[in-house]
Amino acid sequence: xxxxxxxxxxxxxxxxxxxxxxxxxxxxxxxxxxxxxxxxxxxxxxxxxxxxxxxxxxxxxxxxxxxxxxxxxxxxxxxxxxxxxxxxxxxxxxxxxxxxxxxxxxxxxxxxxxxxxxxxxxxxxxxxxxxxxxxxxxxxxxxxxxxxxxxxxxxxxxxxxxxxxxxxxxxxxxxxxxxxxxxxxxxxxxxxxxxxxxxxxxxxxxxxxxxxxxxxxxxxxxxxxxxxxxxxxxxxxxxxxxxxxxxxxxxxxxxxxxxxxxxxxxxxxxxxxxxxxxxxxxxxxxxxxxxx
Amino acid sequence: xxxxxxxxxxxxxxxxxxxxxxxxxxxxxxxxxxxxxxxxxxxxxxxxxxxxxxxxxxxxxxxxxxxxxxxxxxxxxxxxxxxxxxxxxxxxxxxxxxxxxxxxxxxxxxxxxxxxxxxxxxxxxxxxxxxxxxxxxxxxxxxxxxxxxxxxxxxxxxxxxxxxxxxxxxxxxxxxxxxxxxxxxxxxxxxxxxxxxxxxxxxxxxxxxxxxxxxxxxxxxxxxxxxxxxxxxxxxxxxxxxxxxxxxxxxxxxxxxxxxxxxxxxxxxxxxxxxxxxxxxxxxxxxxxxxxxxxxxxxxxxxxxxxxxxxxxxxxxxxxxxxxxxxxxxxxxxxxxxxxxxxxxxxxxxxxxxxxxxxxxxxxxxxxxxxxxxxxxxxxxxxxxxxxxxxxxxxxxxxxxxxxxxxxxxxxxx
Lengths: 292, 414
Hints:
The structure holds two protein chains of two kinds.
Chain A: H1 2-32, H2 39-57, H3 65-90, H4 93-115, E1 130-133, E2 136-139, H5 140-162, H6 164-174, H7 176-181, H8 186-211, H9 219-233, H10 238-258, H11 264-278
Chain B: H1 6-33, E1 35-43, H2 50-70, E2 74-76, E3 79-89, H3 94-106, E4 111-113, H4 118-130, E5 135-137, H5 143-146, E6 153-155, H6 165-173, E7 180-186, H7 189-204, E8 208-215, H8 223-231, E9 236-239, H9 243-255, E10 262-265, H10 272-278, E11 286-289, E12 298-299, E13 303-304, H11 305-315, H12 322-341, H13 346-355, E14 357-360, E15 363-366, E16 381-386, E17 389-394
Parallel strand pairs in B: 1-3, 1-4, 4-5, 5-6, 7-8, 7-9, 9-10, 10-11
Antiparallel strand pairs in B: 2-3, 11-16, 12-13, 14-15, 16-17
């Protein structure tokens, strides 16, 4: 029984990280219908920002989250307005996918040039702490990652639901033309959405850095994970990303524990295929344009 | 004021131009006096294997630089040769590596050096073999490289399934002798073969293998495996994983209080970054070590392993790793073989490589009939981290420190 409980807890904790890493991907896809293949590398840039602050100034990685978010918001806004919007205007949405793939390759190699291909790791004083609750062992770092993910996802959900900019984003996502007719500057909204998504990717990167060692080639893994999470949970909403991430975490740990540690990826893709066949809009399918 | 006449002016200018033009010609004729040997290949300078790929590449560069600049070239069959390194970044991608190697064969490169990672070395070896071009490499240990009847590939390591011979002897020498072993591997050619060798050798030596866990090639979480390890704790936990995965496993072991009397990783603790990341927790971790600069080897070109290490540090910022020495030794071995063959023709050099038995900075280089390194001469020693530094604890003839066993629990490490 304790092994079952431990597996569930481990899965939920891992899922929290997956959720936060995927929410930006989900939002961009939901609002702009753009599959952002550079999402993983943006997550890693967040990890490197946190690494620099921790290494050079001794800033705790959890405190570095706002800085990573600010830097990547600016990056995301400029990236969307300067590159992706141009690709969409001049060609097609497929072109935007190719552009993001190209940018991912360039940024990955830029990270190699700047930081070397060596893996990095952030180890604050609490990195190796743990505690036990009865038969369950809880790793402090992963638990704090889950906590930070829940806080940030709740914050994003509240922003989208209750603030003016949130309503504008949702309106533009649901009916671009109608929003424009109401005076919404859709291009600016797209830029802001991309900025917000990048900021949350950066936040997940800052947390990721204290959980796992990272290096530039890892970017593909985080893009693929985000894709699976979004397919599972549904496009465009924090709750979809949260549900998808937690499910993915549970599937990974349960598969590793009861089928074999070699099979989590196989199971993940099997479920991805099943979901695409049975419920392509995800468990919390929604009305955003990307899912239609 | 004397005015220079038109004819004289033309002569002066013409003479100056002719002198200027002839200067490079003189230089180039000097350069042409020494012939050139080109070493081709690919190496991961980006992608997943880039960290160790860079170490191997730095070894190649250091040997070439030293032999050209400090030694003034190499003499083979009475002629002076300069060496040229023509390596390309394969981005840790086997498909890209094979394209690069085929292109170099088409361009006439005769001698090849290896990439890093069995998954890359394996397909590239198939190409060099078909073209009858030798490849000396220190980046691929998988059995498949050496068991397909290839005649032109030589490796600085024993094949993966034989890399545990010295480790099992080490386990047998520990007092009190461990009884149980568990193995963690990842789903890639090197890790799997290495783990299979470890399991077979440990069973043959009378150890009980409790569990073997196979993980995907790239891992982000090992919590379920560690829960199982806590439930059924072995005396020795062997991880045949690459550096980044090894670090993830040990980090999660510390952060979940998963203690074992001996954590033994084939790769990871040999890297300074790994030890710095874990700090005090790295102490008492064991690792396979293929080379140590304190080893008393004599080398015809560098003199000693220490001289090589000093020369490397003078010319590089990147910390020295054993893969770097392995890379440099590939080139040194080639030169020894060419000198022994008195030729730079590929069949003669291949035959000389097959027969080579020579002491280098890396140890005594001798290959088996299949081309992999002799398991006793080129097999690993065992290192253990003591106060942040890797000390050799086995074999007894190379010991620089005394084994700490059982290792203290994570919470008790200082």
